[in-house]
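Budget justification aside, the reviewers requested a transparent look at the raw inputs and outputs of the sequence design task funded under Objective 1. We therefore reproduce one unedited record. The lines immediately below are the structure tokens for a 383-residue chain.
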């Protein structure tokens, strides 16, 4: 039992990047005395590190993983952007790189680029790849967890049929774990952002595509094959516009950013999403209307999801979420009109707090969660 309790405490510190002993007791369900005794043991053996802190205005000890255990990497690949972050195992980011991608980028080229970036980032802090414990990879596409391959062709062109995690492992000779970016954004918002403290929440990621990450009873829900949360491919318009998944009338084909921009091209000319949002915020009626229509459509679809999962909170993240209440207001009103629960039980609808860093932060958390500290340096016998 004591070994199991040690594991629970270390896992909680890994997940949250450091907690006071009071917070550890709440996170693990252990008594304050048990936490205090085990923390003392683990600090004495070097398995954990403690520093003076405060909690609710009182003196406390903050417990973290020891420095020097190793590094973690988070990578987010979207249709148009690449974001890489390097951190220690307490999730303190040490180096970041962010760059645009060509519209029709291909997996082999970008995996080569990711490998070179990670190598360069590690060397920039005078470390070596052998110190990287795990790499977390967030991909803006549904991933079949059994194969590591994108589950539906066409979602992320140029990446179909590639065993992505295995391919990156071969390039870097380090462990790689992979998941859908919306799921990992939900994990990040649950631990560090707008869904913190909510056991059941939905994070809707709105950008080039639309996805959802599902946190149920404090755990990320991935479904049987690992592709739960493909919210953007809910059919909402029979015979509607062709979606990149090959079907017609999917939510993202109607209300995703590319579809919205195309719908107002004849009125305002070609725009990027950031320009659409800026013009709407400046009062451009056509742009305000286009964003509002998208919000209402997303809210209508979200009502069905809420009727199934009954979340406490809905977090809207991604590039489209920068529109704030121009998007969230109509989304909220459509949701409220269609959800079955009484008005006082309707979930909050809020903007994500992590912005463009949500998915890469989730990838880092996933990497740290997947690191077996028993394989790290001198901790084999102390954990």
């Amino acid at each position: 039992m004591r070994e199991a309790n040690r594991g629970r405490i270390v896992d909680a510190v890994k997940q949250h990047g450091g907690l006071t002993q009071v917070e550890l007791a709440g996170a693990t369900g252990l008594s304050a005395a048990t936490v205090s005794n085990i923390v003392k043991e683990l600090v004495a053996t070097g398995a954990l590190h403690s520093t003076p802190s405060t909690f609710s205005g009182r003196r406390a000890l903050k417990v973290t993983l020891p420095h020097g255990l190793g590094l973690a990497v988070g990578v987010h690949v979207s249709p148009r952007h690449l974001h890489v972050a390097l951190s220690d195992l307490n999730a303190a980011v040490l180096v970041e790189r962010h760059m645009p991608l060509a519209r029709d980028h291909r997996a082999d080229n970008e995996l080569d680029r990711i490998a070179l970036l990670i190598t360069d980032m590690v060397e920039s802090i005078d470390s070596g790849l052998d110190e990287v414990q795990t790499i977390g990879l967030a991909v803006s596409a549904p991933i079949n967890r059994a194969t590591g391959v994108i589950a539906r062709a066409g979602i992320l062109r140029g990446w179909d049929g590639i065993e992505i995690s295995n391919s990156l492992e071969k390039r870097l000779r380090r462990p790689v774990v992979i998941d859908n970016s919306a799921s990992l954004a939900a994990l990040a918002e649950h631990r560090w952002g707008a869904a913190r403290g909510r056991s059941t929440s939905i994070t809707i990621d709105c950008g080039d595509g639309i996805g959802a990450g599902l946190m149920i009873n404090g755990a990320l829900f991935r479904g049987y094959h690992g592709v739960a949360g493909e919210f953007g491919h809910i059919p909402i318009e029979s015979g509607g516009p062709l979606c990149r998944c090959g079907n017609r009338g999917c939510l993202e084909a109607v209300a995703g950013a590319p579809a919205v921009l195309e719908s107002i091209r004849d009125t305002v000319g070609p725009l990027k999403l950031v320009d659409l949002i800026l013009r709407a915020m400046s009062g451009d009626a056509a742009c305000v209307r286009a964003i509002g229509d998208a919000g209402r459509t997303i809210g209508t679809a979200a009502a069905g999801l809420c009727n199934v999962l009954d979340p406490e909170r809905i977090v809207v993240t991604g590039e489209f979420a920068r529109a704030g209440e121009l998007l969230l207001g109509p989304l909220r009103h459509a949701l409220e009109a269609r959800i079955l629960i009484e008005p006082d039980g309707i979930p909050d609808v809020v903007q994500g707090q992590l912005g463009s860093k949500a998915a890469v932060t989730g990838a880092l958390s996933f990497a740290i969660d997947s690191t077996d500290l028993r394989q790290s340096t001198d901790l084999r016998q102390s954990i």
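Residues 194-353 form a domain with the Nucleotidyltransferase; domain 5 fold (CATH 3.30.420.40). DSSP finds 13 helices and 15 strands in the chain. Computational costs for records of this kind are itemized in the attached budget.
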